[in-house]
Write a structure and sequence with these properties.
The complex is a heterodimer of chains A (311) and B (91). Chain A is α+β, with helices and mostly antiparallel strands and 311 residues long. Chain A is built from 7 helices and 18 strands. Classes of the chains: A alpha+beta (311), B alpha+beta (91).
């Protein structure tokens, strides 16, 4: 059971399954919860229609079928692609939205919940970082032939930010939105701040931190969303330059920022960068917590409070 | 309303500012809408593709700004031993 589902669900909280993970919504005024949930569900549905890899009627699939021809897309999809390309630009290509073909080649070609835990097929490695060849002009998008988009590294965090802002603005309430642990907040925080437990697996070291209202937190992990194919254990964070899952130096990387999108881009890039991550994170300056592959060591940077050792 | 060319120059300037901010040690860009500059290989600057710095809203609803004064600073975190509102694990 995901750790999120072990947390209490009070009158201020709604929780449901989406995108093979858990959505959790907490508001500072329980009376606003139904309206807030409706806003979040509508936003999730719109993002799903725009950029799901797994539904034939999504805009992402429409662009894929266009065989390199430009396609006029919705404002939302243009924004989703835009922030993904910006993430690639800001990370020097470590977070690349053109790893879709690589994901398919490794067998991640359907909703993760429907992915067989193990399959005998051989992986097809597709190493073709191509984000610089994607052209987005206003709402006109052209993806080169043979390139498949996968916005998984940015879309969920972007959506968490979007939902939190909309709920805060439309319901006039403090709000926390978590999509699979990508957490965005907006509006006033409850007394003492938003408390977020940071932990991947039950056996992993954990900490609980408080976030001020408007802050965000994301965790990227090399042990989540794993599957086996051709006798190899694979996971969903790929090195775009090799088309293969990154060699896990870090078990998890958590980052706090003022946007969940920023937090998740940085945490994902840190996993991809491996041993080069800590120096880069110091330069970036965002609070970060890194857990080594065997969970034997925890590194905290840039003001992230050190874990309290439990005797 | 600025012309398309003016808009592109302004957006490129925003992008440059974001890159500079990143190099200076801050990726916190809340309150500044993102922009994207991409182009095909070998594109000249004038050929750069841009997407607007403000967004259309397919789902409807609300002024969408985040952050505010001081939002360029990283959020401060503190430890807590109280019941959490949410958890963040791998995603």
């Amino acid at each position: 059971m995901p750790l999120m589902q072990t947390l209490p669900v009070g009158p201020d909280t709604a929780q449901w399954s989406v995108w093979s993970t858990t959505a959790r919504l907490v508001v500072t005024d329980p009376a606003r919860l139904p309206a807030a949930q409706a806003i979040v569900e509508a936003s999730l549905a719109a993002v799903d229609r725009a950029c799901s890899r797994f539904r034939a009627d999504s805009e992402l699939r429409l662009v894929s079928r266009a065989a390199g021809q430009p396609v006029r897309v919705s404002p939302l999809f243009a924004e989703l692609v835009g922030v993904a390309l910006e993430a690639a630009n800001r990370t020097g290509g470590d977070v690349d939205p053109t790893v879709g073909s690589a994901m398919i080649g490794l067998g991640y070609d359907r909703d993760f919940a429907q992915l067989p835990a193990s399959s005998p097929g051989a992986s097809v490695v597709v190493a073709a970082p191509a984000w610089q060849r994607v052209e987005l002009r206003d709402r006109e998008l052209r993806v080169p032939v043979g390139v498949e988009l996968d916005l998984g590294a940015t879309a969920k965090a972007f959506t968490a930010d979007l939902c939190a802002r909309r709920v805060a603005n439309l319901c006039d309430v403090g709000v926390l939105v978590s999509l699979g642990g990508d957490i965005a907040t907006a509006g006033p925080a409850p007394c003492g701040g938003w408390r977020v437990r940071v932990q991947d697996r039950p056996e992993d070291p954990r900490t609980t931190v408080t976030l001020p209202g408007g802050a965000a937190l994301a965790t990227s992990s090399s042990v989540s969303r794993q599957w086996r194919r051709g006798g190899q254990t694979l996971h969903h964070i790929l090195d775009p330059r090799t088309g293969r899952p990154v060699s896990p130096v870090w078990r998890t990387v958590s980052v706090a920022a003022w946007r969940c999108l920023d937090a998740n881009v940085v945490s994902t890039a840190a996993v991809v960068r491996g041993v080069r991550a800590t120096r880069w994170l110091r330069d970036v300056g965002l609070p970060a917590r890194l857990v080594t592959r065997g969970a034997h060591e925890i590194i905290t940077l840039n003001g992230w409070p050190a874990d309290v050792q439990v005797p | 309303m600025p012309s398309r060319e003016q808009g592109q120059h302004r957006i490129t300037a925003v992008t440059s500012a974001l890159v500079a901010a990143s190099l200076a040690g801050s990726l916190a860009v809340a309150g500044v809408a993102y922009s994207t500059t991409t182009g095909s290989e070998g594109a000249t600057p004038s050929d750069e593709a841009t997407t607007g710095e403000t967004t259309g809203d397919a789902v409807g609803g609300g002024t969408e700004t985040t952050g505010g004064p001081g939002s360029q600073l990283s959020p401060g975190l503190e430890l807590s031993d109280d019941v959490p509102h949410a958890s963040s694990g791998g995603s």
